[in-house]
Structure formats: C-alpha cells, structure tokens
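Lecture notes, structural biology module. Today: joint structure prediction for complexes of two components.
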Amino acid sequence: MRDCDYLALTMTIETAFIDALRTFCDSDAARGLNDDVATLGDLVISHDMIVEGVHFLTDDPPEDVAWKLAAVNLSDLAAKGAVPVAAIMGAGLARDPGWNEGFAKGMGQACATFGLPLIGGDTVVMPAAAPITMGMTIMGRPQGRIPHRGGALAGDAVYVAGVIGDAGLGLALLKAGHRLGQNQDYDPLIAAYRRPVPMLETGRALAPIVNAMMDVSDGLLIDAKRMAEASGMGITLNLDAVPLSKSALSYWAGQGEGDQRSIRLNAATAGDDYALLFTATRPLPPAPGKITRIGTIQREPGLRITDSQGEVPLPDALGWLHR
Amino acid sequence: MRDCDYLALTMTIETAFIDALRTFCDSDAARGLNDDVATLGDLVISHDMIVEGVHFLTDDPPEDVAWKLAAVNLSDLAAKGAVPVAAIMGAGLARDPGWNEGFAKGMGQACATFGLPLIGGDTVVMPAAAPITMGMTIMGRPQGRIPHRGGALAGDAVYVAGVIGDAGLGLALLKAGHRLGQNQDYDPLIAAYRRPVPMLETGRALAPIVNAMMDVSDGLLIDAKRMAEASGMGITLNLDAVPLSKSALSYWAGQGEGDQRSIRLNAATAGDDYALLFTATRPLPPAPGKITRIGTIQREPGLRITDSQGEVPLPDALGWLHR
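The predicted structure, tokenised, for the full assembly:
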C-alpha cells in the first residue's frame, strides 16, 4: 500500500467511527467531538494515544516514548491555555521489563519537568508481537476562556507559535538509519521527533485573545484545514512564511535542496510538530516562543496555499502519514 | 508457556512497572496507586484497558466489546459508590469499518443504559495484525465517603455482592467452541463474560458503611488477597460460601462434576466477575443484588481458605489468566 493510500484508509476509518460516536456524544462537554479537549466542570480533559510503529519507532528509547506521551497530551492543554492538573495512564506494556523501567523513568522526568501529577491508570502486558500501546488522559485548569479550534472569524490573521517540520525531518533521519550523536547538526531534529516540548506558557499567554487555537499534531496543512472547517470558514496560507528552524534550513542546505516550495511543503505536511496554530483579530500580547503570521481566514470554504511563485497546488497528503 | 507461567510473567512485569511509577506518583490523589480509583477534586477517576486476545476474544461481537469496556470502568465507580459523570475513550481501532461501527453502536447502548456521557477521546487505526486495544477513563461523583480497598479492619466480616465464576465459565465455553443460542442453559454464562453488569446501585447503597470495597475483576482469591494486603491485614475465606449462580450450578451438574471444592476454586480464580468485594463491621443496609458473607478479616497477614472438609491448599494461580 502506498503511504497516501494508508493515510486515506486510516482517516476514512477514524472519521466514520467518530461520526458514529457523534450520534450519541451530544453533551456540551463533548464540544462536538471536534476540539482538542472536552470540558469537565471547571477543567478541560483530553486523551491521546501513542502506538509503536505508528507514533514512535521500535528503537526509540523508552524514556523518550514516555516523554512523548506526556508531551502530546500536554500540548492539548497548551492549545487551550490550561495549566496541568493531573494525568491517568493506560499502559499497554512491553514484555521487556527493562523497556518498561525506562518508560517509567522517562514519565517521571516529564511529570517533574511540567509539574504534572500522574495519579493512576491501568497496566496490561501486550500479547507477544503486539505493538506497545500507551494512552494518557490529561486534565488541566483553563485560565479563563477556553479557545475552541472552531472559533476563527473571517479576516482573522492566522499564526503559528513554534517551528514546523523539524520532527518530520528527525523521523526521516531515524528511518534512514541516522542515530543521535552521529551528526550534531541533526540532533535537534531527532530531539524534536522524540522529545517534543509542549508550548504551555505560550498557550496561556495567547488564550485570552485568540479566536481559535489548536496544536499542530498531524501536519500544518491538515490541521489548518480542520480549523477552518470547524469554524465554518476557509483559510489561505502563505507557504513562504511557514517558520523553519535553523537546523532544518541547515539540513536542506546540506542536501543541496534549494526549492523553497518543496522544502516548505515537506515541513507543512510532516506532522508531530506540537506547535500552536491560532487566529486572532486583535494584536497579539507578548508570548514566549517564535510567533509567525502564516495566513488569513476568509469566508469562502477550503484551504488555499500561495507562495512567491503564485498558487500552490494542494499535495495529495495534507498531513503526517503516521508511517 | 503454561498459563500459570504466563500469569506470573505478566504480574511480575506489571508490579515492577507500578513500583517504578510509585517513586514519583506520590500525591494524595494517587491513593498509593493501589486503589481502583484516583481522586480529582470532588470526583473519582479511573482507567481500564481491554485488549483483543487478553480481555476479549477476536470473535466476540464488537457491540459486546464496547459494552464491556464501559462496564469494567463503571464497575470501578460502583466499588467507590460513585455516580457516573463522564468518560473519555482511547480507541485503537480495527481495520474493518464494520467492526468499528458495531463497537460505536454498543458504546452508545452502554452509555444510554448507565447514563454515562462519552465526552471525548482519541482514535488510531491499529497496525496490521495488531490487537484491537481500547482504553477508557471514567469520572464519577462519590456520594459522601470513598471506600478504599485498603480499609479493612480486624474482625470485619467479608462479603461479596453478586455471583462469582459465571464469566469464567462463559469464557471456557466460548473457547471450547460453544456459541450463544446453541444451548440456552449456557447463554447466561456467555452473557456474563461478554456483557458484565456493573453493580452501581449496590455500591452506592453500601459505600456509607463498608470499611473496604473493591470490584472483583481478576479473580476472587487474588482480589481478596490484594484487599487484605492493602489493609495490612489477613483474610480467611469460606470456600463453601462463594456464591454461584443457578446457571453455574446447572453447568456443573451437566458436566457430572460433584466435587464442591473444585467447582468453587474454579469460580474463585476465574475473574471477570465485576462483583463487589467488601468488608464491614456494622450490619449491612438494604442493597439491591445478592449479598453473601464469605469470610473474615484478621490481623495475621495472608490468605487462608477453608471449606467443610477443612483447610484448602492455595491454588497455584489465584486469579484470572487473561487467556
């Protein structure tokens, strides 16, 4: 199966399933099952899974897998401007006790780093040859209003906080056999894939003034399209503005790749960024991290991309292939 | 690998992992990571996973798998006397859209039956040949005090609400090739395996007066031992008193099995009962469901079993083999 066929298959399956759930998940707390979080009293709550071979590589260090599980969940809180309150974990464990021990150690590091109390969960040893499968439910306390991904208004400026594409390059490097420490120019890219950093403070600073906010997990293009659709709007992105890191630019220079359109399309469809995507009508407050305007919301539905050469045809796959 | 070696392997792995988590999961909310729930503000919260080939069979109907996921989570609330508030699901889906559709339908039935709002979650299509893996985090509102599994006092009477062993017989029948509707005497046993009913009302009625309470998920003997250990106590069970259903008795009569010790040891190690195990000093209030006194808590640590023939040697495996 080609990668983009696989993407289409899984997206079709997941979308059909979520549509089936929507027939009975109709409480306000569910936020239409199209936001990053649900609400629970005065808290927000979210759940993200990571599966071996889908969201992480079999030879990723277990400490990093644990960090990633915490980080992808914390990123959902960041997108709602919420402070971490607690987490519960469902751990589908390895049969190798050493792997599990490393995972527990990495989870301890992540929880200490982000002030996240892990308060309970469930464990099961996965059957032989089955992928390690981890889930986490995270609760956070919003600091006032909770931005919805579907809140964008016509005329809003669209921004990204953070950089796009590093994790995708890190994944590509690992799949090509590169190892951490082998080339220090590449290490930040591998770290971006294995140890994403949730933008909690940035999200908290922005939440009071944004109209829509979400984290970029599956790829900038697909997530931008989802934001526009959830808002009943369309979105135009300026591909040239998509923020790349110095490490990414140095990687592409080293590859002899000079086609800016191709470089930025790669970044904008790579996924696993855990940057924040948001829209605002008003001027932005000071917020930590690199913030870049990348587009505009308009009434006409759809995703449009332009760059200095003109209109950019939409790529077949707008997001991460999870492969 | 023999079943009891497999049990020993998975229990060793899970225990080592939980011990590693305990080094940093030290908030009061975590309740020492040895209760069925954690606390979250004025709520209790729990997470249970079910994995294909471990907790359910590949040819169990997907509607029933969904019901079971909800029921095993609701059973944790029952053990704390809590009313369901909301659930979040992590769905590691099948590649067969029909299976997923059935699962969503069954989840809708369970949520409607038990008044459980499903408010969010995450979906991932599991890799080819990987087991379907589902997790649920459930939140409930306790009605006053929250019984801990570690609250048993010396001299307490030990009780079971519900019956023991039906689900284990249902699983054995299914593994032997029996099908629902093939022999109507067996249907309630198969239903007990596939569609356990959480004892929510019973748990709520009992919570104000019990000293310790937990649900029986892995097997009566192992769960009784865990309750005693968490309480710093020992426990003596009267095997003859272990409550069996009419269907179970009829099953054993049909098998020509008359050895009561063997029948009741089978039930008490089968697991998947989702009965309530509790201890009390005071007389019990009226509560729905069959309630049976099965033993006594004492100061000397350890699990002891007696029956009309005298002391019963502990079986090699005290609980469900998950196989």
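Point to remember: The longest helix of chain B spans residues 3-22.
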